[in-house]
Structures are given as C-alpha cells and as structure tokens.
Specification:
This protein is of the alpha+beta class. It has three helices and four strands.
C-alpha cells in the first residue's frame, strides 16, 4: 500500500490563503453599486467575484469575494459599508481554499 503525501495540502492550509466574502443589501439606485465598490478601490483591492441582483422593487443584493483579504481588513471594510446611507445589511464569511 502506498502512503499519501499530504505535505502540499498542509502547506496550503498553513499559508492561510482564504477568500473573504460579503453580502450587501442596499437600496436599489444607480449609485449603490459604485459606492460599494469604492470602498474596495480606495484600498487598491479588486473583488475576485461580484454578483448583483435586484431582489425587490427597491432593493439590491450584492455578493462580493476578495481573495487573500485578511479578517481584520475585511472587518474594517464591512464596518465602513454598514455606515453608508442606504445599506440595510452587510453579512460576512470566510471560505478556505483547498
């Protein structure tokens, strides 16, 4: 029976490579999406994934993922988004690669 080498997997886990995910519910108006993206642009960040959908007559839901964003910076971004006018909810999560 052959042994399985888990060292490449372990090294990926040790590096802490993860993706910070946010779901933002906001008022649906033409300026909502640019205002959300501006928070990332000011930090020189580009979301690796972005999905936006109108979820009601006047509501927009935006899902974003930023690869490699650490928890502290992700938390600061979420707090800044929560303080913006028109944003109802900001949910966060982290998904690990691997």
């Amino acid at each position: 029976m052959n042994a399985i080498d888990v060292s490449p997997l372990q090294s990926r886990l040790d590096t802490g490579v993860s993706t910070f995910c946010l779901t933002v519910r906001t008022v649906s108006d033409p300026g909502s999406l640019p205002r959300v993206l501006e928070v990332f642009a000011k930090r020189g960040l580009t979301p690796s994934k972005l999905f936006s959908v109108a979820t009601g007559a006047d509501e927009l839901t935006i899902d974003l993922q930023v690869a490699g964003l650490d928890l502290d910076q992700g938390g600061l971004i979420a707090s800044q988004l929560r303080s913006q006018v028109g944003i109802a909810t900001v949910l966060t999560s982290v998904k690990s690669e691997g």
